[in-house]
Design goal:
By secondary structure, this protein is an alpha+beta fold. The protein has two domains: 55 residues, Wheat Germ Agglutinin (Isolectin 2), domain 1 (2-Layer Sandwich); 82 residues, Immunoglobulin-like (Sandwich), CATH 2.60.40.2550. The strands form three sheets. A five-stranded mixed beta sheet has the order 5-11-10-7-8, with no helix packed on it. A three-stranded antiparallel beta sheet has the order 2-1-3.
């Protein structure tokens, strides 16, 4: 009799264990740190910003998945907490530099290009959300490092490019 009670107890424990584990769902983490590779080149210059599940804006899905290790994209566009997202292509320049800007919502920005000594090379004010791509000629710049400032409200982004 005692063996039957022990057997029923073990059977109930197994049944309970299988019932609870069968209902569990596997939810992958937002970021897979084993997939983060900051040196991976997507070779996709498309500027289609996406908001990752970690609330970071990336240039496109490839950059989010390969460089950021993000498993899920929340939506296409700039994350609300970033307000504005800007990127350069290419960042090693001979003639022209392309600046891409997108806002989380409506907005405007001021763009400045400065050399490594802080000397102002270009300034454009009150750029609207309608413009997403700006091309600047760097053909007359001397070889060196330059900084692009995108200033929108009280948010600013600094990007760097090299003129060769």
């Amino acid at each position: 009799m005692r063996n039957v009670i022990v057997f029923l107890g073990i059977l109930a424990l197994f049944q309970f264990g299988f019932t609870t584990t069968a209902n569990a769902q596997f939810i992958p983490p937002c970021v897979d740190s084993t997939r983060i590779d900051p040196f991976f080149q997507c070779n996709d210059p498309a500027f289609i910003p996406v908001c990752g599940c970690n609330l970071v804006t990336y240039r496109n899905e490839c950059v989010a998945f390969r460089n950021g290790g993000v498993n899920n994209i929340l939506y296409t566009g700039v994350c609300q907490n970033d307000y504005v997202f800007a990127d350069l292509y290419p960042n090693v320049v001979q003639d022209d530099i392309n600046l891409f800007v997108q806002f989380a919502d409506k907005g405007s920005a001021t763009i400045q290009i400065r050399d490594v000594f802080g000397n102002l090379k270009v300034t454009q004010n009150h750029l609207s959300i309608d413009n997403r791509q700006f091309t600047f000629s760097a053909s007359e710049y001397r070889t060196g490092i330059y900084y692009v400032f995108v200033i929108a409200g009280n948010v600013s982004t600094v990007l760097k490019f090299v003129k060769i």
